[in-house]
Amino acid sequence: MTNLFDINGKVALITGSTHGLGMAMAKGLGQAGATIVVNGNSSQEKIDAAVKELQDQGIKAVGYKFNVTVEEEVKSAVQKIEGEVGAIDILINNAGIIKRIPLIDMEVADFREVIDIDLVSPFIVSKHVAKGMIERRQGKIINICSMMSELGRNTVSAYAAAKGGLKMLTKNMATEWAKYNVQINGIGPGYFATEQTKPIRVNGHPFNDFIISRTPAAKWGDPSDLAGAAIFLSSKASDFVNGHILYVDGGILATIGKPSNEE
Ligand code: GCO
């Protein structure tokens, strides 16, 4: 029986993969045999360090610095990657930011910046990567959504609007591109222990206690918990899965929660 989860030799571009969930998925796909194209826009040093971290684990990895919100940079980076590394088989739109500001106090510029990076850039990068996937009649696109694709939360309005939009953009990409044998799905991480959640995860922080009580698994996720979902949605095993958001959330979306005096 062929290994339905085999991604050996595939080329995977993961945006925003110098750290956090992006790096975790890079390790997961890399350990499963994919060649990883690391992307970042902060500094070449960070990109080089991420590439070395992967290579030290025996993973084939290269790095490209480009700003996912600037179409010209994305277009030339995709051309460069496809010329130097090979056709992009898997795209994970992971790059994203969050701003935790009460909606009434949020500046328009802050709102626009979150939408630009978290929603517009997956559109830009997917548009330019999908062209080759459509020509080759094969490809996998994974958009990193969020609990906030389904639920609101105080102070993260721009992020929720972006991630809710990314859920629907995923469904629309599937609507338009599935006929070319391109599968476009999303992963919705629950609450994970990353730099991004560090400010709300410290022991004793009310939100930390809330998440532990609100999550049936009663813990924050470890970034490595995402590797399985990423491999599934990058492999033949998901060839008839399209427009689906796979939540990896410890069960938080399955329940309304329970009173504090219940086990
Ligand atoms: C927050 C968190 C969340 C998580 C994740 C949940 O402030 O609520 O940062 O946004 O990062 O997106 O799926």
Automatic annotation (TrEMBL):
<dbReference type="InterPro" id="IPR036291">
    <property type="entry name" value="NAD(P)-bd_dom_sf"/>
</dbReference>
<keyword id="KW-0560">Oxidoreductase</keyword>
<dbReference type="Pfam" id="PF00106">
    <property type="entry name" value="adh_short"/>
</dbReference>
<dbReference type="GO" id="GO:0016616">
    <property type="term" value="F:oxidoreductase activity, acting on the CH-OH group of donors, NAD or NADP as acceptor"/>
</dbReference>
<dbReference type="InterPro" id="IPR002347">
    <property type="entry name" value="SDR_fam"/>
</dbReference>
<comment type="similarity">
    <text>Belongs to the short-chain dehydrogenases/reductases (SDR) family.</text>
</comment>
<protein>
    <submittedName>
        <fullName>Gluconate 5-dehydrogenase</fullName>
    </submittedName>
</protein>
<dbReference type="InterPro" id="IPR020904">
    <property type="entry name" value="Sc_DH/Rdtase_CS"/>
</dbReference>
